[in-house]
UniProtKB/TrEMBL annotation:
Keyword Cell membrane belongs to the record: yes
Origin organism lineage: Archaea, Methanobacteriati, Methanobacteriota, Stenosarchaea group, Halobacteria
Species, as recorded: Halomarina halobia
Pfam families: BPD_transp_2
Predominant location category: membrane
Membrane topology recorded in Swiss-Prot or TrEMBL: Multi-pass membrane protein
Family note: Belongs to the binding-protein-dependent transport system permease family. LivHM subfamily.
Regions that span the bilayer: 36-62, 82-102, 114-138, 164-184, 213-235, 247-273, 280-301
Gene Ontology biological process terms in this record: amino acid transport
Keywords: Amino-acid transport, Cell membrane, Membrane, Transmembrane, Transmembrane helix, Transport
Family matches, as CDD domains: TM_PBP1_LivH_like
One Gene Ontology cellular component: plasma membrane
Stated name of the protein: Branched-chain amino acid ABC transporter permease
């Protein structure tokens, strides 16, 4: 689970007073941005899960450990070259290829033959294999992932100053979300992917090689996880449990937003991020529990999540 106390400085010194003092106003604003940053990172992870489930119908339990592979690849490249940009590129390529290998060699043989539980167990096994491979290659100790030199310092946002690197994470995540939305809605391939989520047989009947689309979608989903792993690396450091720590809240985001819902994933990711951080301001031990409580309430009211429609990427 995500230990927010190790990610964000949520210890509030001096108690609560109303109206807030200028120092408290800065603190509240900083925590809101921390929640947004965490939420945007979770959105990237969750969108990979969403598009994979929307088209392939696979709940990918290996998603977090694909993220882990990307984080360690990025750490290795940055350590060797000193370039954070090269690290991002290497992580994207590495996780994309990892996703392609997994889909082509293992998952493709399960479509239409095995139920979701067996697919889930298969991806669980893949996750264990990837995590074990990471520990075999890089060891079990964490790796310090420094901020890139050009992202040191803070940005003056009028009411408060905020770390430049975290602003970078928010902006990059936002641009990637917009780019993915435009890809799915304004390109021929993106429209084919959306059509495939609604009627795979129809797309196949049109003479389109659905297997190649499946391959590409799984690769894109894996690459999104890889990018998220790189972005969170300087904040969380690279360690073997990073993937599972991000995967669990990402699953919550997907369920709350609605399985297969692009819009729901974005809204739920930001809500979950803010909810965790703001709860941690007052009672850090409840920061993770409240997320699952929120999920339970949403499912009681909306069993398919906030925006979910069966088998559809909206």
């Amino acid at each position: 689970m995500i230990e927010l106390s190790t990610v964000f400085n949520t210890a509030f010194q001096g108690g609560l007073t109303f109206p807030a003092t200028p120092l408290q106003t800065q603190y509240y604003a900083t925590q809101l941005f921390n929640g947004l940053m965490l939420g945007m990172t979770l959105v990237l992870v969750s969108l990979g899960l969403t598009i994979i489930f929307g088209l392939l119908g696979v709940i990918n339990f290996a998603h977090g450990d694909i993220l882990l592979v990307g984080t360690y690849i990025a750490w290795t490249v940055q350590s060797a070259t000193g370039s954070f940009v090269f690290a991002i590129v290497a992580a994207v390529v590495g996780t994309f290829l990892t996703g392609i290998v997994i889909e082509r060699t293992l998952l493709r043989y399960t479509y239409g033959r095995y139920d979701a539980l067996l697919q889930l167990l298969l991806t669980f096994g893949i996750a264990e294999f990837l995590r074990g491979g990471v520990m075999l290659v890089w060891g079990q100790s964490g790796k310090n992932f420094p901020n890139p030199a050009w992202a040191q310092g803070a940005v003056d946002l009028v009411l408060f100053s905020y770390p430049l690197y975290r602003v970078f994470v928010i902006v990059v995540a936002g641009l990637l979300i917009v780019a993915l939305y435009l890809f799915l809605n304004w390109t021929d391939l993106g429209l084919l992917i959306r059509a495939g989520t609604q009627d795979r047989d129809m797309v196949d009947a049109l003479g389109i090689d659905v297997s190649r689309i499946y391959l590409l979608v799984f690769g894109i989903g894996a690459a999104l996880a890889g990018i998220a792993g790189v972005l969170i690396g300087p904040i969380r450091a690279a360690h073997p449990t990073l993937g599972i720590e991000l995967l669990i809240p990402a699953f919550v985001v997907v369920v709350v937003g609605g399985l297969g819902s692009f819009r729901g994933t974005i809204i739920a990711g930001i809500l979950i991020g803010e909810l965790q951080v703001l709860t941690g301001m007052f009672y850090s031990q409840a920061a993770e529990v409240v997320v699952f409580l929120f999920m339970a309430i949403v499912l009681l009211v909306r069993p398919r999540g906030l925006f979910g429609k069966e088998g559809v990427i909206e």
